[in-house]
Structures are given as structure tokens and as C-alpha cells.
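Supplementary Methods S3. Input chains for the assembly prediction are listed below.
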Amino acid sequence: MTRTRLPTGAVVLLGVAALAVAACLSLAIGSRSLSPGAVLDGLTALVTGEASGSSADGILSARLDRTLIGLVVGLAVALSGAAMQGLTRNPLADPGILGVNSGAALAVVLGLQFAGISTVGGYLWLALLGGLVTAVLVYAVASVSQGDQSLTMVLTGAAVTAGVTSVIAGVLVSNQGALQSFRFWQVGSVAGRDAVIIADVLPLLVVSLLIVGLSGPVLNAAALGEDLERALGQRVHLARFVVAVGAVGLAASAVALAGPIAFVGLVVPHVVRLVTGPDYRRILPGSALVGPVLILLTDTLGRVVTPPSEIQVGIMTAVLGAPVLILLIRRAVLR
Amino acid sequence: MTLQSRNLSLAYGKRVVVEGLDLDVPEGRVTAIVGPNGCGKSTALRGLARLLRPTAGQVLLDGTDIHSLPTRTVARRVGLLPQSPIVPEGITVAELVARGRHPHHGLLRQWTRDDDRIVAESLERTHTTDLAGRPVDQLSGGQRQRVWIAMALAQRTGLLLLDEPTSFLDIAHQVEVLDLVRDLSVEDGTTVVMVLHDLPLAARYADHLIAMRDGAIVAEGRPRDVVTADTVCDVFGITCRVRWEHAGDVSVIPLGRHLPTHGQESPEEPPHARVRVAGRP
Amino acid sequence: MTVQTRPAPDLSAALGAMSLATRAVRRRSLVVLTGLLVLLLGLVAARVLLGDYTITIPDFVRIVTGADIPGASYILLESKLPRAVAGTLAGLALGATGATFQTMARNPLASPDVLGITLGCSAAAVSAAVLLDAPGGMVSLAALGGGAAVAVALVVLSGTHPGAAPGRMILVGIALAAMLVSVIHWVLVRADIYQAHEAMVWLTGSLNGVTWSEIRLLTLVVVVALPLLLYVGSHLQVVELGDDLASGLGRHPRATRTRAIALVVVLTAATTAVCGPIAFVAFLSGPTARRLLRGRPSLLTAGLVGAVIVVAADYLAAYALPGNNFPVGVVTGLAGAPFLLWLLATSRPVKETA
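Predicted C-alpha cells for the full assembly:
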């Protein structure tokens, strides 16, 4: 199968254009749609600092927050998924499927219940810790097992998720206050948040972004398998561990901002791979572009499918992503 | 009991594997179907065993279309041993053989003394009595194959269809299994149809040989008439020397491209040249 | 088709060997069944009589025969007894259905809860209850519909059946489960906080609020469907030899599997409608029963193991932490996850046939 490859510049330009369009749609569409003119006016007003005083301003500033958070979350989740797929050489890897998100969720619930932590900056570190512990557990079980690696990894993730769900349920049934906040958190949403919270996750986000963004060569080497990797002179375990921490850091940042968002980390790298081929130095920047586009578009779609109420972006991605996962499973060598 | 096929065509999806097969299985004899890989011999056997619905033509059991008969009725008359049956975890030999009685049971017809006797006979017949209490998954390939045949025997059918009963067995176990098949035919009058990939073994053990290629019968009859240099060339596409000796011994010696094609065996002929035609490793 | 037998050979050796072989197996399964029954009875007795409010045996007899003892009557008839009965029924159903799927797939991971069938029941039931405010009967029907839809989707979307490619089916099940979980999360957001709390308790798998009318429904389903499942299970013994051989022995493998799956869906739906999805019981029971019987699968034994697990877990959930009356699913989930991890860590390559 030969694929005519577009020049890199054109692809990047196309990606950026798509991102711009998605961002504009996310700003304009909703229960009350704004005309492109109104969006533009509102934006200039925000930049120059002179509010026109119309109700459009309020809507726009809320949507702007939402769009910014969507951008960051899409970026983080997609890169995290791409790195996890590369590290584990498992096409089905994703922070949700491997249980990293639920590990993070458990840490957040426990923090909420026992330490009264309820700020983004506070549970960011809990999410990171929970995610890391889960990642190590899942990876350990899958590498000890002699069964099919992809299957074992996915099942381990599912097992962890199921166990974690029980603990969370145990906490929530006896604490209605925690249930009240948690049920809105666990759907995964970018709405109703102030973009300022991005500042809380910024340190972790930037470090993780740097690690994962530069991990292309490590992931490319990982694709060759451990023996060849060593023969090529990579310090296998250290490099992989650092990248894994970066991938979990991205997942934790996204979870802290928006709650668990399913399947974006899984689907985006596969879509990107169709265009870029298997080179992770191209897949990573591609995912960084496509992830936000996907989040923004599904979030916008979620605002209009069931008016007047909205469907949260986490639900939308799960419902739209599951068929893609099933497609991948059918295509994979797994029988 | 007779088993025939009339103008039988079989297909997997759209891929036609067997076309226009006319076949009469001789009663009380051992019939072997041979042919190269993918010639449709196993498919033909599955068709005869009603596992595949024909796209055209029919399979007749005692003159009746086999697909018009209830499958349990057929199961009481035709036994089948497929190529790779699955051994359930932890099952013992006695239990596995007992499952051969399944077609004879129903809600009202439960296990009886007779069933015990038949299972015991099947064990004796296949020399697996000593294994009765052993888990099947711990047996050797040859023992396991005998146990499967015991299960087919416990079904008590006058007709047995065996799909490559000797595959994955070494030569000693192949002979052991084929001797058993021969016993069944000679002593019990059981009709046997089996697919084999080893041409000389098939010629040695069968009364009736069917050679297939590309989903159709190329030659059929007594082994001595079928296994000739010409038919082997026709069926397997190789040049070979066929030598029939007294008492039905036959050797089929492929000539290949690198060895002398005629005349006496040259003294330099390397020993490995005397390989038998075998379809599968 | 006369099969001419030779002069009757001496079969005494073979018959002796057979009875020796079967006797050991029968004795083992008899011991295991009796042991499990005694254990179950003991647990049910403990569940009913002990705990935070002790009821003496004479009191128990008096209350059951109609006497009214203030306090004790209420606790026994409205809490302890229904929980014990519902737990036993649910455990029986879950254990047997789990073992059915595991036997069909020849894979301990392929139980209805791992495959998402249970979640299908829960998602449909919770949607009906919260979004449509449906009455109990409708909720049960919704659970049935949801479970059936997932079962059909599993077979259609994986393009296989549980006996052929369990790996692919399990992954498809996990994909469906992920989708259903987020549907449930969405429903929880749509509900008001009291509904959400009630739904949360139910979704964890709980015997806390079972009523006698729900128990009547569950009893009816279990009494009808469980014997049928055991009967179909005896046909599965032939199907597990492989499709070709099963057909050769006069048993349609597809039809047998379809019947088994249908019965599993009915039992799962009824259990889920009454008790919610009690995590991991279906998954845990089969392998445990198998280990007790030294590697041999048995649906009945698995059912009894399931009942033991649920009743014991409910006792722990209710009384282990004083002052907390947890749903039973918290305990089974906590116990099941490590077991699943252990099973995965020690798993050998999955044996599959095309």
C-alpha cells in the first residue's frame, strides 16, 4: 500500500488551520450562538480591556475559559496517549484504558474525603501520585505475565479500574457531599471552570510537555524492541522511565483540570499515524495538534446535541471513541 | 449403511473448494482420501459429515439427504473425528470416552449399564484401559489419538469419518492408529473414511483410495490401480518412481530436480533421497 | 447398521478401571458440594442471627412462624432475612452464569461482568429509573434489554463467538464497558443528589434495600432459569470439544451457545435489577469452584461458591466496620481486583482456535 505523502509544511498548516477553526466554533456555538462578528468584537474588547457591556461578553469570556482549558487538556491527553502507545508498544494504550485515570481519581477522592483537599493545585499532585502508582502496577503485571501483552495490559487496567471503583463507591455512599462534587468531576468536562486553574498545573504540565515532546527518538527506539534498543546504545530503562513519568504527568494534569476524559489519548495517535507514518518525531507534534481539535469539536458538539442541556465532553468522547477502539481491536493481530 | 455424494459442491463463503463430487463409500471397507494441501480432501470429508451445507448437490445417508435428517439421528449412525478436537481442561480418559455416548442420551434416556459396557469395550478396543483415570491433557500424542478414536467408537456407529487421524504423530504411532482402524473394519465391519496425507501409508492401509486435486476426484479405486507414477504426477505434480512389491508394499520415490531421473539407483545417491511423499511436515 | 461384536471380550478390567476413575471424581465433587452447602447454611445462619443485633434461634423460629417480637421482628424480616435470601439467590445466579461463560470461552477472564453484560444491565436500569422515573417492573425489563443488547453487540462486533476468540471478545467487552460507564456517569449528573445517592448505592451492588417483592421476582427467575442453564450446561460439555466434534455428536454448537447466552442474560438481568451489579462474583466463582474440584468446571459448584461469596461479603460489608453499612459490592470489588491481577500476572498464553 503506497500513500502519497503531503509535504510536511502543508500538513502542519492544515493542522493549525483546523485548530483555529475548532477554536472559533467552540467560541461561537452553544445554547446561545454568537455571530463570527460578535466573537471578533468580543475578543478585541477583551484584549483591549474595554468591555462593551453586552451580555455577549459574559458568554464569550466563559467560552474562552472553556476553550483554553479544552486546548490544554486535548494537548496533554493526546500526547500522553501517544507516549503510552509508544512505550508499551501497545496500540490500545491510553491513560483511561490503562487505569491511570482511575488511579488518579482514587487519589483525588481520598484527598477529598480524608484531607479535605478540593483545589486543583492540591489534587494535581494526588492525581500524579495515584496515576504513577497505577502505571507502575499495570506495567509490572503485564511484564510478569506470559499471556498476550496488549490484552493483559488492557485487562490489568480494567481490573485496577474495577477495584478502584469499589473503593470510591465505598467512600461516596457514606459521604453525600463528596458524591455531589465527585459525580460532576468524574464525567470529564471542560465547562464551568476558570482558566486561571491552568496556572495551578503549569509547572507539572510544562515539564511533562518538554519530556514527552522530546521523547520521539526514545519512542522510535522502543518500537524496535528492547534488545535492538540496547544494541543501539539507548539507556533503555532510565529513558523509558523518564518518558513514562512525563506521560503520566500529562495525564494527571488533564485529570486535574477536566476530570477523566476517555479515548482521546487512544484515538488521536492512530488518526495522526495515518498521515505521518510510524515515526514518533512526527506523531507527537501531530497529536499535539489533533488532540485539542478533537476535544474542542466534541465539546462543541456536546453543547448542541441535546438542547437545552449539554453533554459533557468526557461522555461525548467515550460514546464516540468506543467504536474506534472496537475497530482497532478488530484490526489488531489479536484474535 | 451407505454414504454417497451426488454432484456435491462445497464452499467457504464465496470460495468454492469442492465441485461436483460424486462419491460412493464402499460398505465395510476402509477408504482413504489423498491429495495435495488445499485439494479439498478435508472439506469433502466435512461435507460428508454434514458439517458444511452444500452449495449444490447432496450427501445421501442410506439414500436420504443427510441434511433432512435430525442431526442426532445422523450422530447415531455416523461418527466423526475432526482434525483438531479440543481437550477440555482436567477431563479424564474415561469421561472423555463417555461423551461419545451423548447422541444416545436425552432428557428421558439417561446413563445405563449398557453405556458403561460400551465405554469399557471402546477402552479395551483401543488399549486405553490402563489410562482410564488419567487426565487427557497429560497423555502423549499417540495415546491421545487412541482415546479420541475410543470416543468415536463409543458412539457406536457403523460409519466412521476420520480427518487426518495420524497428523502430528511419529511413524510408530501412525502405524498403531492405522492398525486399529484396520481392526475395526476387518473385525467389526465398520465402514471407515479417512483423510490421509501420507500416500504410501494410505495405499498400505486402505481398501479403496480416492485421489483428489483442485476439489475434484482424479482417480479412484484399488490402491494398486490408483498409485501409479502417472497419477502421482497428475495429483501431486511431481515426478516419481512407484514400486509395488509383493503383499501390497509400495514405495513412492520422488525424483526431484537434482537426482538421476531414470535407470538404476546410482551408488552416489544420497540416503535422504528416499523420502516418502508427504504433504505436510 | 449392525455392529458385529466379536465374541464378548472380558470387560471386567476396563469396567473396574472406569469405576475407579469415576469414583474418585464423584467422591471429590460430593465432598465439595456438601462442604459448600454446609458453609452456605452456616453463613446464612450467621447473617440472619448474628451481627449488630443478635436474634436467638427460638426467637427466629417464633418470628418466622408468625409471632411478633417488637424490634427483632422488624430487623429480621425487613433487613437480615431478605438480605440473606437475596444474597444466596444472587450468588447462585452470578456464580453459575460466570462459570458458563468461562467454560464456553475456555478462559477465566471471559465472565459476564468483565465482558460488560452486567454493565449493560446496570446502564439500562439506572437510565430507566432516573431519566424515565420508571417503576420496578420496567427497570427489570430495561436491565434485560440492556444485557441482551450488550450480548448481541459483543457477538456481532467481535465477529466471533466466546469459544473461538475470547481475547478479542474480552477487549470488545471492555470497550463497550467504557462507553456504558460514561453513560452511567452522565445519568448520575442528570439526577438530583438523592436519586444520585440511591443510584450510587445500587450501582455498587447492594442488598441493603431489597424488598420481598423483589425477592419473589428473583426467586422465580432463578428457579426457572438456573435448572435450564444447568441442563444446557450439560450440552456445553459436548460443545467444548470443538464445533466440528460437537456437530458430529449431534449437538448444534451455535444453538447451544445461543441458548446458554440467553439464559445468562436473563439471570444476570434479574440479579442486577434487584441487587445491582455486584462486582466480580461472576468472575471469581468459576475459577474457585474449578480449583476446589481440581481443575474440573461445574456450574452448580460455581453457583454455590457464588452464594457463599455474596453472603459472606455482605456480612463483612454490614458489620466489619461498626457504624458503616457498606454495599456488598465494595467488599467483592476489593477482593476481586487483586485476584484478577494475580490471575493476569500468572496467566499463560491464551489458547485459542480459529
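Chains A and B do not touch (no CB pair under 8 Å). Chain A has one domain: 8-331.
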